[in-house]
Amino acid sequence: MAAPNRAAPLGLYVHVPFCASTCDFCAFYQVRPTASDIADYFAACEAEAALVKWSRPVTTVFWGGGTPGLLSPDALRRLGEFTLRCCSETECGSGPTEWTVEMAPASVTEARLAALREIGVTRISMGVQSFQAALLAALGRQHSREQIYRAYERIRAAGFSSVNLDLMFALPGQTAAEWEADIAEALALAPDHLSTYCLTFEEDTALWLKLSQGRVKLDPEHEAQLYEQTWARLAAAGYGQYEVANFARPGHACRHNLNTWAMSEWVGLGPAAASQHGGWRGGNVADLRGWAERVQRGERMTEERKEMTPAALAEDAFIFGLRMNAGVSLEEWRTRAPDAPWAAVEALAERLVADELALWSDDRLCLSTRGRLLADAVGLEMMEAFQDASQS
């Protein structure tokens, strides 16, 4: 089993499962909140945190969902106090260096923002998706362009260190011109960070049903065009790409995500939350009551539980690391995981370079622009290289 590195970062992810409605593209676990649900959630979070063997100071915090910003200001303060108690369990005197909270435009109020600033949140990530009414309607989003602008003004006025906007492209019926218009509107707001996600069709979502019925269609060539359009446009505007879907001004990359992709440890609390901690990876059951019941029995990380050996960590470091522009270091991972199937991995790396999908930067393997367009396929090949060789 991989030995814990006390000098490495430790993240804390808190899944807040409450949402006012389910967007057509969303496959994350969520429920419409009731007062009793929220009370049960807080009680179970406290109980789950008590089960964790905190190994070192928490360096980054991320509240995701669901819609964490849907909680009332008082509930946000309560969740913040709970989060800080988790940090104090690790003797982290100054609190996390980065604390991100996801918000939807319709839930952004001055009172909620004041509560978040009060507890120490440094970064707001707002799910915009599009500025165009027809495209928002096609996604089932419950906010308007006007609400986006009003929410952004309030977030900026509150004084958070970093503000991220989430956008989506390759939406049903979306043209290249419409996507360019969305990028232009986002850039006009001058956020510190932009996340641009290609729409994916997850099972058990409304969009998946439309795809299966032939009401929407996939167009890989159009998607590739929009990817390249995005990368060129944001680079020209001064946003550095550091991962396939993420762009930031200097100093504003999301440290929590960077640490996760680099296979550092994180503790996940809440229903459906995943953890990678103490030599194991696993998730909580995606059910509010089921999760609470398991926690009361002293159980967590029961779903898809896997021992994270050095070789298993190396596999995921290459799969996720190749999505980052900085790539991944073979020398570092050879040292950390000497028993991984390096002959097969290096053979694949050389083939990717020969096919101009990747390149070497010192000892780091990085994807080329063309390789980033095929990052999912490359990740699958890397997974097969690790697994096929380890089974032979």
Automatic annotation (TrEMBL):
<comment type="function">
    <text>Probably acts as a heme chaperone, transferring heme to an unknown acceptor. Binds one molecule of heme per monomer, possibly covalently. Binds 1 [4Fe-4S] cluster. The cluster is coordinated with 3 cysteines and an exchangeable S-adenosyl-L-methionine.</text>
</comment>
<keyword id="KW-0408">Iron</keyword>
<keyword id="KW-0963">Cytoplasm</keyword>
<feature type="domain" description="Radical SAM core">
    <location>
        <begin position="4"/>
        <end position="237"/>
    </location>
</feature>
<dbReference type="GO" id="GO:0005737">
    <property type="term" value="C:cytoplasm"/>
</dbReference>
<dbReference type="GO" id="GO:0046872">
    <property type="term" value="F:metal ion binding"/>
</dbReference>
<keyword id="KW-0143">Chaperone</keyword>
<dbReference type="GO" id="GO:0051539">
    <property type="term" value="F:4 iron, 4 sulfur cluster binding"/>
</dbReference>
<comment type="similarity">
    <text>Belongs to the anaerobic coproporphyrinogen-III oxidase family. HemW subfamily.</text>
</comment>
<keyword id="KW-0349">Heme</keyword>
<dbReference type="InterPro" id="IPR007197">
    <property type="entry name" value="rSAM"/>
</dbReference>
<keyword id="KW-0004">4Fe-4S</keyword>
<dbReference type="GO" id="GO:0004109">
    <property type="term" value="F:coproporphyrinogen oxidase activity"/>
</dbReference>
<dbReference type="InterPro" id="IPR010723">
    <property type="entry name" value="HemN_C"/>
</dbReference>
<dbReference type="Pfam" id="PF06969">
    <property type="entry name" value="HemN_C"/>
</dbReference>
<keyword id="KW-0411">Iron-sulfur</keyword>
<keyword id="KW-0949">S-adenosyl-L-methionine</keyword>
<protein>
    <recommendedName>
        <fullName>Heme chaperone HemW</fullName>
    </recommendedName>
</protein>
<dbReference type="InterPro" id="IPR058240">
    <property type="entry name" value="rSAM_sf"/>
</dbReference>
<dbReference type="GO" id="GO:0006779">
    <property type="term" value="P:porphyrin-containing compound biosynthetic process"/>
</dbReference>
<dbReference type="Pfam" id="PF04055">
    <property type="entry name" value="Radical_SAM"/>
</dbReference>
<keyword id="KW-0479">Metal-binding</keyword>
<dbReference type="InterPro" id="IPR004559">
    <property type="entry name" value="HemW-like"/>
</dbReference>
<dbReference type="InterPro" id="IPR006638">
    <property type="entry name" value="Elp3/MiaA/NifB-like_rSAM"/>
</dbReference>
<dbReference type="InterPro" id="IPR034505">
    <property type="entry name" value="Coproporphyrinogen-III_oxidase"/>
</dbReference>
